[in-house]
Amino acid sequence: xxxxxxxxxxxxxxxxxxxxxxxxxxxxxxxxxxxxxxxxxxxxxxxxxxxxxxxxxxxxxxxxxxxxxxxxxxxxxxxxxxxxxxxxxxxxxxxxxxxxxxxxxxxxxxxxxxxxxxxxxxxxxxxxxxxxxxxxxxxxxxxxxxxxxxxxxxxxxxxxxxxxxxxxxxxxxxxxxxxxxxxxxxxxxxxxxxxxxxxxxxxxxxxxxxxxxxxxxxxxxxxxxxxxxxxxxxxxxxxxxxxxxxxxxxxxxxxxxxxxxxxxxxxxxxxxxxxxxxxxxxxxxxxxxxxxxxxxxxxxxxxxxxxxxxxxxxxxxxxxxxxxxxxxxxxxxxxxxxxxxxxxxxxxxxxxxxxxxxxxxxxxxxxxxxxxxx
Length: 374
What we know:
With about 375 residues, the protein is of the alpha/beta class. It contains 14 helices and six strands.
């Protein structure tokens, strides 16, 4: 059970059902998605819709896919024309998504591709349309029984951006900029330490300055040219090392608890579910993964999981930065601020924003890999 964003022409999606946005009379028209679907499905689709004849705003009807090779059904829904947000537009748009998902479930569809409804010619603001879509899909997935699974694709055409919000977007850019800057500082410091270590190794390997038995005083090496004893030389160390050691010694019980667990990555996820009182179903949905994906990670620990899936699990469990690093370590990974993906996710974690759909939108908008079943 997961939702993922994809850039694609919806008629090319290989799913059980695709969704078409149409009008109340179900008459094909325009040059958008509706026209493309009719062209691909053939004239039989228009004939089937003429028999249905009518679909009210906020509802949906279903037909066969006819000549479309990649799917079995086409679900047609009628969304509201956006005026000012004060005329029931959100209620009707939510009804569209709910109707689509219910119809898909009624035909035992395990995958469905939905465009971002009403955000084109109907004028619904993309950020609000995206928020509504993800909210309804999340609620629907939570409502499914444990033994049912469905993959929902939110299909955006070409370079369309949904721009969740200016504040989130600004925060992401700030976190990337700041983290890159800080990481460069740390890299320079690490380089200095490495150079100091090489210098130590050089002096350790150099011949001693033992005085020959018959050497005259003027033949002795000048004291100023001798290397200082290693113990006397200052070595750069991590800033605040003493404080960090003291802090580690007095860390809270929770940190000692999770650090002491001798568990694999997948086992640690289950441990966190127990600690936080989170059901497996809630974990899967909040992490945007499905049951089979997690089962594979659990029962094949010899296979290194994708980092995007590991990060998705950390988000689904609402782990803080240290806990996330611990979980990544168990999968042989770490957060690195040299990678934009890591910087974006870390920024959300440090702001305690664990909405994986907002995180994925921020990643999608920057052409970065998405978290979870994507």
